[in-house]
Specification:
Elements lengths: L1 H42 L9 E9 L4 H12 L4 E4 L1 H6 L1 H9 L3 E4 L12 H19 L5 E2 L8 H8 L4 E2 L14 H10 L5 E6 L3 H16 L3 E2 L2 H7 L6 H9 L14
Helix pairs in contact: 2-8, 5-6, 7-8
Bound molecules: zinc ion (ZN).
Zinc ion (ZN) binds next to strand 1.
Length: 266
């Protein structure tokens, strides 16, 4: 009897040890997987694109002043672009987003309130993105998983929260500094000098100077034989390199962080 009790106790202890070991192993595996995904995202080398394609992107809309003018320019030039929209602006101007979509442009998510995502918890980040994703779906009939973090601000937490939920973070390779810039000539010059294969140009639904620069940018890039594509087109073609824009951004832009542009006001 005593021997049996001792045996049971030992067995019980052994099971406890096995359970603890299994738990530790599980924690270890989860940690390695999360670490690996972070490293994979950050270690993809940037290689110049093969295709002479370029994507124009417009943040912070829809805006009642700028968006109709931008759409008009794009229509005139026969170019499709991508609009990274802010949820609270979509709520205010749903008809503008409807027009963007009807005219064949691509739509991405630029959060609901335009916050600095690095300051938010994982749950808050996803709330910002999900709210806008659902709003966009109501108007376009399609969910968008393309995300541009406000101000291009992100960290490991933002990368993991977005990518593990199926979102794809899209930054840019070419920022002509149009936000708050009073010279359309300067915007044009910077945009074309930063153009490259499979590049992404970041512009805003903001000042008239941006609108004025658009036809010149398009005309010069057409001369240089670039084909204008949307982000979805670009992603389709270079799916294997979809994280390339993190690297490019890290290397060339992060050294001079952007002001968290707040075109979005009540
Ligand atoms: Zn923005």
């Amino acid at each position: 009897m005593i021997i049996k009790k001792l045996k049971d106790k030992l067995l019980e202890k052994r099971y406890r040890v096995i359970l603890v070991m299994a738990f530790l192993l599980l924690v270890g595996v989860v940690a390695i997987i999360s670490r690996k995904s972070e490293m994979e995202l950050r270690s993809l080398p940037f290689s110049p694109g093969e295709f002479k394609e370029i994507a124009l992107t417009f943040d912070d809309g829809p805006d009642p002043m700028a968006t109709p003018k931008i759409l008009d320019m794009l229509n005139r030039e026969g170019v499709k672009a991508t609009f990274f929209v802010v949820g609270k602006m979509v709520e205010k101007y749903p008809e503008l987003l409807r027009q963007v979509w009807k005219e064949g442009h691509d739509v991405g998510n630029h959060t609901y309130n335009h916050p600095d995502l690095t300051k938010l918890s994982r749950e808050e980040i996803l709330k910002e993105l999900d709210k806008t994703r659902i709003l966009v779906k109501k108007i376009t009939g399609k969910y968008t998983y393309l995300v541009r973090p406000p101000g291009g601000r992100y960290d490991n937490k933002v990368i993991l929260a977005t990518t593990l939920s199926g979102y794809k973070m899209i930054l840019w390779t070419d920022y002509p500094g149009d936000y708050g810039c009073s010279s359309s000539r300067l915007i044009y010059q910077r945009a074309v000098s930063g153009a490259e294969n499979e590049g992404i140009i970041l512009l805003h639904n903001g000042l008239d100077t941006t609108v004025e620069a658009i036809p010149r940018i398009i005309s010069e890039l057409k001369k240089r034989k670039y084909r204008f594509v949307t982000i979805s087109d670009l992603m389709e073609e270079i799916r294997a390199k979809e994280s390339v824009y993190f690297e490019k951004f890290e290397r060339e832009q992060k050294a001079r962080p952007l002001p968290l542009e707040m075109a979005v006001t009540e």
